[in-house]
Amino acid sequence: MASLSVWAGVAFAGGGGVTPPKTPKVTDVVCISTCGGVHKATADSKIQVRGRHLSGVSKVLFNANGGGRTAADAIAVTSRSVKARVPGGAATGKPKVTDSYRSATSPKVLKIVGPGQIQSSGNFKLRDASAKPRRSYYYGKKKPRVTYMFTNGEPTDVRIDVVKRPAGTVVDSWVEHAQAPNTSHTARWSGVRRGKPASNGHYKFRVGPQSGSMESTTQARFSYHRFEFPVRGRHSYGDGVGAPRSGHIHEGQDVLARCGTPLVAARGGRVQWRAYQASGAGYYLVIDGKKTGHDWMYAHLKRRSHLRQGQRVRTGQRIGVVGQTGDATACHLHIEEWSAPGWYQGGHFLKAITKHLRHWDRWS
Ligand SMILES: [Zn+2]
User: 328: domain range?
Assistant: First the structure.
């Protein structure tokens, strides 16, 4: 009944655009400092309740010694996380959170032990950190990731920085909560900053306790690029955009390579077109490059690409092999870059394809 009278007093009853707050849901409660384990804490340990719709939570309730509950104020609240300190007198049990209307109980038990059972906080020491793959690409098959291990006396909030080399600029940083010591952990980086692919170049991951000093290793270095050079083998440059052709001009750049040399998508996206043109492009493919607005057309493939029209393709993904189909006098890739809205859809071919290829070639 109490909750019904609360509802009557708020504006939701009037209808319109206001929706009632969603019921909080708790998925876990973990200890994040002064811990005996991920689910083992003592009085004054900092704990984190995880779940959803938690932004209205003001109190965390713990079982009390001698029965009932004892409350702690929430100290940092987001929709997915609430932090609090374990109050004196708390006992082992399933903590509960409350907002103005409702409550939710953890499905997991938080064990409360005496302070003597908590190992004293050792010093965080990074034992290992390595990045994989050593080279990765925006919208590529694999995101850059770091696998790390550390020693410490307790589960630790571990901060991970992505640092541009050699400048040392931190381009991204986040915290992995309550990581167990002496355990291998893996964290991934999106490679995207404010919705845009991160800049080309060399990077490293740096790992440390949330509020302590950060460390790195030479194995934690990696490179990241926005495009991959599409011809994966020995090659040389042939005719560029504007070279004379009978009745028209050359609309792309030729890259000479042996027939059978693997070809990859310079930028992933969607396969916009796959076709065959006996009098010109031979087997060809047009890819709408993710976040570019531009299209890339790859021609004279040895055989029809295995990729289908409409299929998603990742940067660096194999699209076929170099061939000589259509009107071609040697094995080569003919590649065109088209401005938005795209290839024969109102865009136009760009002379810049040559400059772009030579730029991507520097890290191929
Ligand atoms: Zn050509």
Answer: 236-361
Q: Which residues surround ligand 1, an ion (CB under 5 A)?
A: 254, 334
CA of 266 to the centre of ligand 1 (A): 17
Contact 283, 298 (CB under 8 A): no
Burial class (CB in 10 A: 0-12, 13-18, 19+), 73: exposed
Residue 316, helix vs strand vs coil: coil
Domain count, the chain: 3
State the distance between the two ends of the chain, measured CA to CA, in whole angstroms.
Answer: 69
175 CA to centre of ligand 1 in angstroms: 49
In a domain, 154, yes or no: yes
Between the CA of 235 and the centroid of ligand 1 the distance, in Å, is 14
**62-77 pLDDT per residue, tens:** 999 999 999 999 998 9
Q: Which amino acid is at 153?
A: G
Distance 232 CA to ligand 1 centre (A): 18
Q: Is the same domain home to 240 and 146?
A: no
pLDDT digits (tens, 9 = 90+) for 87-106: 999 999 999 999 888 999 99
The model's confidence at residue 315, banded by pLDDT at 50, 70 and 90, is very high
pLDDT averaged over every residue in the chain:
90
The verdict on 109 and 132 lying in the same domain is no
Report how far ligand 1's centroid is from the alpha carbon of 7 (Å): 71
Q: Are residues 218 and 303 in the same domain?
A: no
Q: Residue 239 Cα, ligand 1 centroid: separation in angstroms?
A: 7
Domain boundary residue, one of 75, 101, 117: 117
Residue 329 alpha carbon to ligand 1 centre in Å: 10
Cα 332 to ligand 1 centre (Å): 8
237 Cβ contact partners less than 8 Å away, ≥ 6 residues apart? 253, 254, 255, 256, 354, 357, 358
